[in-house]
Amino acid sequence: MTTVLERPAPVSLGTAFWYWLKLGCISFGGPAGQIALMHTELVERRRWISEQRFLHALNYCMLLPGPEATQLAVYIGWLLHKTRGGILAGLLFVLPSLFILMLLSWIYLAYGKLPLVAGVLYGIKPAVVAIVLAAAWRIARRSLKNAALGAIAVAAFLAIAVFHLPFPAIVLGAAAIGLAGGRYWPGHFQIGGGHPDARASYGPAIIDDDSPTPAHARFSWGRLLAIAALGGGLGLAAWGLLAALFGAAGPLAQMAWFFSKAALLTFGGAYAVLPYVYQGGVETFHWLSGAQMMDGLALGETTPGPLIMIVAFVGFVGAWTHALFGDQLALAGVAGACVATFFTFLPSFLFILAGGPLVESTRDNIRLTAPLTAISAAVVGVIVSLALFFGQHVFYLQAPRPHWDVAAIAIGAAACVALLRFQAGTIKLLFACAAAGLVLSYLP
């Protein structure tokens, strides 16, 4: 006898608050793990949204620049509780990782030279190189469906690693190739799947397959323009305030403008935009050093929330090293982290709250999706170059004389095997490598 499940009762905003807060505190494992967590809880257990509607939202978010897991949380919160629900979901998904990363950044800058902290970072950094390589492998398996896309990946690698072209130029070049490809060779630029089985059913949901689109989610040009203007005005006002208080050429105003641009280039996830953040933070503005950037990525891998939260570390270190508030270094760091986070995530909220219905209605149009397919292929080459860059800094040391660090190479190789062969969890891997680094740092 088959048990017929009843449709769950509508969920209150208070209940949603506690769920989104919990998710923000436990969302380790990168976007794949975060999306899996939401699927298990919201589709299978709580049945707040059906499988089909969940995948519909996910496909939309994957077409946009920005962290797709964060945008998916905003989207579902928006469907359930209108604009306030979307803002609440997004904020609670991000804020726990922001607070944790600010604390870790302070510990790193204030006590990073202590043997205990240095030993932990010594073990984590080789693991981060392995994690970046594993990310490139996963994205390559999903994105490089044919020789044409493989060629785009190789060209992107050469463009950034050999010719040192800026990341935005690579993105624009890949988009142009995809635009032409979608017109003349559409079969080579189809977006792949890779999502859970859309036929699965876990019983009736609050937002079900046959549920009509809520009134607040129906597209209208007036609503889109109003929210876009409001969000754009908020960003401009915040930048103007920073420029008025600290100068338009000051670090905080520079961070606001730079991370706004970075937010629009995060096609393919955080790993894709890290070279751009490195170019800006290290080479252009000198907010931090290359070694500090590597340490920041290591810290970012150990915290919940989206990996793009490494921008909070960049902002914290940049404001701290520039001593914006005199000897109040921690306060300056907090200001830098908050500015970087605000301007990085503001576009993601606007994409969902303003343009969701419009983008959804066009997601199956090959002319529009082909450029994104080409960008995803280019991202693979960019991420491989990032892994090689980090590997040079971690495995080949300059002091006291140039030499290969055999112990770090061994940790990195073991981490690669654990990730690619045994599918080890990121957090368990990082703890194991941190322990190994700690032990090695105390050996004679």
From TrEMBL:
Keyword annotations from UniProtKB, A to Z: Cell membrane, Membrane, Transmembrane, Transmembrane helix
Membrane-spanning segments: 17-37, 87-108, 114-137, 149-177, 224-246, 258-278, 307-325, 331-356, 368-390, 402-420
Recorded superkingdom: Bacteria
Membrane topology: Multi-pass membrane protein
Pfam families: Chromate_transp (PF02417)
Record localization: Cell membrane
Family: Belongs to the chromate ion transporter (CHR) (TC 2.A.51) family.
Name the UniProt record assigns to this protein: Chromate efflux transporter
Organism: Janthinobacterium fluminis
Gene this chain is encoded by: chrA
